[in-house]
From TrEMBL:
SUPFAM superfamilies linked: S-adenosyl-L-methionine-dependent methyltransferases (SSF53335)
Protein name as catalogued: O-methyltransferase
Keyword Transferase: yes
One Pfam family per UniProt: Methyltransf_3
PROSITE patterns, per the entry: SAM_OMT_I (PS51682)
GO biological process: methylation
Length: 217
């Protein structure tokens, strides 16, 4: 189900500041991947870069690297000495991402972890300023709770595909991932620790901000 008119997407791209030529090249190469539907659009990549540049995060976590395009967009806003940690389950995609990070000369800023994010996240001893979740949909709530424990006050979590091809819009959801995404959206909406806004960009982006935690005496 196409949620956004393709002409509107083309128009948006026409009037969005493009990323650099290398990122455009990596995006074009990634479009040839057999699972190219998992790739962020170039407008979405520009949005991720824009947000990162506004926040100027010290530590970024990405769950779901794919070919590394979104990580390269996100790292454009890192503070000097900052780090982006990205997790990819599939070894082949991790290899492609690693090559792209080297091509972009970002291998010192971007740290790639290969394996199950549910096992890797607890081993990363950082306080996250910005988190991007774009991995297996049935684990979104698990990822959310794992990173919330180490998210800075006023830190931001961005989750992709929260409209899941429009399948969350119907009353009768049969797809397992659609059900999981809908349950995740409900979980976040009920979480008093956060504030959130759902944007109808491409397949839906949910922006979540952790409220400031008052110090206890």
């Amino acid at each position: 189900m196409e949620l956004i008119n393709p002409l509107a997407e083309q128009y948006a791209q026409q009037f969005t500041t493009p990323m650099n030529e290398l990122l455009h090249h990596i995006h074009q190469q990634s479009e040839q991947h057999s699972q190219a539907h998992m790739l962020s659009s170039e407008v979405q990549g520009s949005l991720l870069a824009f947000i990162s540049q506004l926040l100027k995060p010290k530590y970024i976590l990405e769950i779901g690297t794919f070919t590394g395009y979104s990580a390269l967009c996100l790292c454009t806003g890192l503070q000097p000495g900052g780090e982006l940690h990205t997790i990819e389950l599939r070894a082949a995609d991790a290899g492609t991402a690693s090559a792209n990070f080297k091509l972009a000369q970002k291998e010192n800023e971007i740290h790639l972890h290969t394996g199950d994010a549910r096992e890797i996240i607890p081993t990363l001893d950082y306080k996250w300023d910005l988190v991007f979740i774009d991995a297996d949909k049935t684990s979104y709530t698990t990822y959310y709770e794992l990173v919330m424990e180490r998210l800075e006050d006023n830190g931001i979590i961005i989750t992709d595909n929260v409209l899941f091809h429009g399948q969350v819009l119907g009353e009768k959801m049969t797809n397992k991932s659609a059900k999981a995404i809908h349950a995740f959206n409900q979980h976040v909406a009920a979480d008093k620790r956060t504030e959130q806004v759902l944007l109808t960009v491409r397949d839906g982006l949910l922006f979540i901000k952790k409220k400031h935690t008052a110090a206890t005496s």
